[in-house]
Design a protein that fits this description.
Layout: E1 4-8, E2 16-21, E3 27-32, E4 38-44, H1 49-61, H2 65-75, E5 79-84
Antiparallel strand pairs: 1-2, 2-3, 3-4, 4-5
Helix pairs in contact: 1-2
């Protein structure tokens, strides 16, 4: 496993967003709500870790994490493909 970064929501919230590199070298985003939902997406294309970290930090700090994640990715024209649930 390669590079990994994780971001937790504010105190009292269990939301987690993570950034990781798979064994095949692709970048993946992981979401876990701490209860019953875990989602994984593969990032299409090459984007710097700083850009993706900024996206995840903005999303996890928001009240509605997933909608904000999708908005931030769209703003930066970053495409993702869902690979796991």
């Amino acid at each position: 496993m390669g590079y990994q970064a994780g971001f937790h929501g504010p105190i009292g919230r269990t939301d987690f967003l993570g950034l990781r590199t798979s064994r095949q070298g692709s970048t993946e985003i992981v979401y876990d709500d701490g209860a019953n939902q875990r989602l994984i997406w593969r990032v299409a294309g090459e984007f710097g870790e700083v850009i993706l970290s900024d996206v995840l930090q903005a999303a996890v700090a928001a009240q509605r994490v997933l909608p904000t994640l999708f908005e931030e990715l769209k703003k930066r024209a970053i495409q993702i493909d869902r690979i796991g649930a």
